[in-house]
Amino acid sequence: MTTVIRRRGAAAVLTVVLGLVLGSCASGPSQVNAAAIVDGRTIGVGQVQELVDRAVKAEPAAQTLADQHKLGDLSREVLTQLVMHELITSYTAQNPVTIDPAQLSQVAEQIRASTEPLPTDGTAAPEAIVATAATKVFEPEFLARDYLALAAIGDRELNSVKVTFDYAVLAPGQDGATGSLREKALAKAEQLAVGLDRATAVQKQDTADGTLQWETITTTPTAQEGLESSALFGTGPNTVVAFQPNQQNASWIIALIREREVSAPQAGAAKNPLQVAIPFGQRVLQSWVDRVGVKISPRYGVFDQVAMRLAAGDAESTGVLVPVKVDAKP
């Protein structure tokens, strides 16, 4: 792998915990007053609103969000957490995991200690207010249970996945086309998705004229520290993924996934660190989304499968997944 795919740094365990939740959802696939439908189970608009109201009361700094008309961000955070819980529940129903009670108690205490009130003088960042307020409306044990379940899901496959993909990095100053890097990356993804033969021709032309340098690599998550939890390792074959690895670097990665293989886990293998296993658990659930389906009410935005969370709209998503059309037979 060339040095263009760079390390982002592993997320802190606590940050990951704050992105998870356990919440009960009404059953039944009715779309009336549904905030989301996950694997046929409905998360009601009323449930989301109730949690948002409780969050504003539980975290005094959240009043800042109301004053700035940013409660929509809090609603999306709450709904993201509920959707993730339903995905975890659906996955573990068919692929059971074991959670250590002692570890569950330990993590719950860490979560409980992390929810001190934020400053109300306007100095707290909106992102911190959203995460803290959303966390406070759920029992720490519930949060911890989802957190550890996701870690177990990720640990099960982290050392067993091998992916082959063609990739290029679109950096500032590359490609003479007009528009933002995001627009260029998404346009290239659509261009590649016309068909596998067409994709190969486009890559050869890009490399020949210096527009983009394409490389093909077979690699594993553990060989790509910092990118092990990216959509590169959760996307299925014959799909183009384009995404910005982090907001500190303007570059975009465009990749055509050729193969994704999952071998049987080795018996007695050591567990991966939680800060690595948890985000990779989201990558496992990324492919589960394709299997069970996630529908989001437009009032809340869209489900960004690259980031595995809600976004206000397609333009605010962190990337795109585009299935490659099957090449027509001659």
Describe the structure.
- The protein is an alpha+beta fold and 330 residues long.
- It has 2 domains: 13-157, no CATH class; 161-263 and 315-323, Chitinase A, domain 3, CATH 3.10.50.
- It is 42% helix and 16% strand.
- The chain contains 10 helices and 10 strands.
- The strands form 3 sheets. Strands 4-3-6-5-10 form a 5-stranded antiparallel sheet, with helices on one face. The protein has a 3-stranded antiparallel sheet with strand order 2-1-7. A two-stranded antiparallel ribbon has the order 8-9.
- Strand 5 and strand 6 form a beta hairpin.
- Helix 4 (71-94) crosses helix 6 and helix 7 crosses helix 10.
- The protein is globular.
- The chain starts with 12 loop residues before the first helix and ends in a 7-residue tail after the last strand.
Task: Describe how the helices and strands are arranged.
Blueprint: H1 13-18, E1 34-38, E2 41-44, H2 45-58, H3 63-67, H4 71-94, H5 101-113, H6 126-136, H7 140-158, E3 161-170, H8 181-192, H9 196-209, E4 215-219, E5 239-243, E6 252-262, H10 274-292, E7 294-296, E8 302-304, E9 309-311, E10 319-323
Antiparallel strand pairs: 1-2, 1-7, 3-4, 3-6, 5-6, 5-10, 8-9
Instruction: Catalogue the unreliable spans.
Output: 6-15, 17-29
Q: Rg to the nearest angstrom?
A: 20 Å
As a percent range, the share of helical residues equals 40-55%
SS-derived structural category: alpha+beta
- How does the overall form come out from the CA principal axes? globular
Strand order of the largest sheet: 4-3-6-5-10
- Approximate strand percentage: 15-25%
Number of alpha- plus pi-helical segments: 10
Whole-number tally of structural domains: 2
